[in-house]
Structures are given as structure tokens and as C-alpha cells.
Amino acid sequence: MKISMTVNGKEVAREVEDRRLLVDYLRQDLGLTGTHVGCDTSQCGACVVHVDGEPVKACTMLAADAEGAQVKTIEGMAGKDGTLHAIQAAFQEHHGLQCGFCTPGMIMSAAALLKENPKPNEHEIREYLDGNICRCTGYHNIVKAIMAASGQPVAIAAE
């Protein structure tokens, strides 16, 4: 079947099998490999993208279900001139990543959180990220980065 959508501000149209997952369409058909495949069971959040402004785990959505949608991936977060988005810059500044595998999904989830709640507290951030797994950082610096991106002080409670 032929599908079309807008991905990171660009119109795209391709023939796809009707069972093709959105994550595979983005990575394999469009070459947008920033969206990671972590578990294929919607448990890890490494594949989070925005579809019509809402966070979606791309491993759980068929590409055909995004027909006509506005899709944003991690590649679409930076400015056209390459300037990092505030969340990306905060992750870099506050060491919110180690291996980087979960980072695209974390950043996309953080962007959705800050759109919904521009000044979340530490508990709200941790609760919102419940569907995103990081095996390296222990989340401490991820929470600090999101606090910084929201314009708040980065001091958080010790765990």
C-alpha cells in the first residue's frame, strides 16, 4: 500500500507492506536511524517519536496508521542550522547519557512532558519516564537535564 506523511517537516510517500511498523519505516525506508529499536515489545521507550504532537512508541504503531500524520523523530529536534534543541543541549551539559542508546527516546519523551507540563518536579519527571528504560545512568542526570531544560534549578534529591 502507498502511504504518505510529513516526517521532520518533509513530505514523504512510499509503498510499504501493510504490516510494516513505523519504527522500521523510519529506520529502513527513510534512513532515520536515530529512532532505536530496543525491545520490540513497547517496554523500553527507545523508539519514541511524536505523531501529530503526541509521543508514540514507534515499535507499536503500523506505518500505515501514520498516514497523513506529522511525525517528528530525534533528527527533527535540532534547528535547521544544526543548533541543538534545549533538551538535547541539557542532556549534553548535564551528562544525561552514557551509551546513548536510550537517549533519542528519552529526549522525545522529555519534549512531550515539557509540552504538557513546562515546569515538572522531580517526581513528575520520574513518573513520566516510567516507560523509558536506561541501563546506564540510573536516571539521576536525565532528571537533572530535564529540570535544566525546563529552566528550573537542577538540584534534585539524592536517591
From TrEMBL:
It holds the Pfam family Fer2_2. InterPro entries: 2Fe-2S-bd (IPR002888), 2Fe-2S-bd_dom_sf (IPR036884), 2Fe-2S_ferredoxin-like_sf (IPR036010), 2Fe-2S_ferredoxin-type (IPR001041), Beta-grasp_dom_sf (IPR012675), Diverse_Oxidoreductases (IPR051452). SUPFAM superfamilies: 2Fe-2S ferredoxin-like, CO dehydrogenase ISP C-domain like. Residues 1-77 form the 2Fe-2S ferredoxin-type domain. PROSITE patterns: 2FE2S_FER_2 (PS51085). Keywords: 2Fe-2S, Iron, Iron-sulfur, Metal-binding, Oxidoreductase. One of its GO terms (molecular function) is oxidoreductase activity. This is Carbon-monoxide dehydrogenase small subunit.
